[in-house]
Amino acid sequence: MALRVLPLALAAALVAPAAAVASVTVATTAKRPALRVDAGGYAEVSWSAGGVRRTLLVPPRGSVLPGARLPGRDVSRAARGIEIPFARVIRRTPDGRYWALQSWRLVRRGAVELRFSRWRGAPTAMELTSEPVGASGELLTGRATFHGRGVTGVWRTLEGDAVPEAAVLECFCAGRGWSWFNSVRTRSGGKFGANVPSRALARRYRATIVGPNVGTTLAPDASAVVASSR
Description:
With 230 residues, the chain is an all-beta fold. Helix content is 2%, strand content 50%.
């Protein structure tokens, strides 16, 4: 099942339960993203598109509010000592929570999406290994976890559509850079595996997955890179 892109126009018009989704797609092809968080746990995401500055307010619970502004003073600070893939902004609040914006392409030939997350402790983790198969083939296997639990099941768009948790697989192919070649669903424990087709055999591979939701936690997206076993 193909992953679905949330167009910018839809992001500006929808109101849906923030706690019902995983890390949230805020916009596509967003420029100059920024993030502010107040003491009440409200997060304001802002970005530029089409020469206009836009905002989306993500409350601690309930509905996201397109166009709304932060109700309180920004208490967040730039986070130190933590890394997540595709990060545009990582903030930390006095209660120990992390807040982040990541930017990557979820769908083959789709637009680059700006995604919001909030969590405590370690971020989502991704493992990836490669091993030779037959005369020239290669098998990729991996596992995605959040706080020790496998990332599996489904995540939901702001539209409320359920999308299967799947690892997006890419090759670093000569002349093309990172190129999508497959998307494979995770199984029990967050595990996944796929053979690399001959057209995608390369020196490096990457697997990326949408972070899960656990209550009001919106875990960040995770990614890993592995060298070819050949």
